[in-house]
């Protein structure tokens, strides 16, 4: 388990887009947001972006939020993980970043005059299985310099 020994160095919300809208239809709102992942490595550092978007036809709002997390590992990441880095970024690091986005969504919806929207738990292991550990189309380099 030593190869997963890392510290959480930084968290930032990079992008927040929240818009109140007129619902297109009346009905039950299924909270099933879209997730996007991105990462890049630099020696012992892994930088991960996690984006969450939500736009349901019956919802009175929509949003897109991107968060950035920086993680420092004991050993050089490329040498230690090789092609398994997507697995570490999606499962381990994204699960640490997710609660920060969840809290941001709850606060945004509350401050917009709605009941706080609590994002449901996310099983990042199942997401990895569904997109494949080596799918680089889903894991692109983060752009956190804006």
Count every helix, treating DSSP H or I runs of 4 or more residues as helices: 3
The total count of strands amounts to: 5
- What is the CATH C level class, in words? Alpha Beta
Q: Name the CATH homologous superfamily.
A: SecB-like
What kind of assembly state do the chains in view correspond to?
single chain
Shape verdict: elongated
Explain the overall architecture.
The chain is an alpha+beta fold. It has one domain: SecB-like (Bacterial Protein-export protein SecB, Roll). Helices cover 27% and strands 34% of the residues. Strands 1-4-3-2-5 form a 5-stranded mixed sheet. It starts with 5 loop residues before the first strand and ends in a 6-residue tail after the last strand. Residues 136-142 have low confidence and may be disordered.
Give a concise summary.
The chain is α+β, with helices and mostly antiparallel strands and 146 residues long. The chain is 27% helix and 34% strand.
């Amino acid at each position: 388990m030593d190869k997963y020994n890392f510290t959480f160095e930084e968290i930032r919300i990079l992008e927040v887009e929240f818009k109140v809208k007129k619902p297109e239809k009346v009905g039950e709102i299924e909270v099933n947001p879209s997730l996007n992942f991105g990462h890049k490595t630099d020696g012992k550092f892994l930088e991960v972006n996690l984006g969450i978007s939500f736009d349901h036809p019956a919802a009175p709002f929509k949003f897109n939020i991107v968060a950035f997390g920086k993680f420092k590992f004991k050993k050089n990441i490329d040498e230690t993980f090789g092609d398994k880095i997507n697995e570490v970024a999606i499962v381990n690091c994204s699960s640490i970043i997710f609660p920060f986005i969840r809290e941001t969504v709850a606060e945004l919806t509350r401050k917009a005059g709605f009941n706080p929207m609590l994002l449901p738990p996310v099983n990042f292991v199942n997401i990895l299985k569904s997109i494949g550990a080596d799918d680089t189309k889903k894991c692109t380099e983060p752009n956190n310099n804006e």
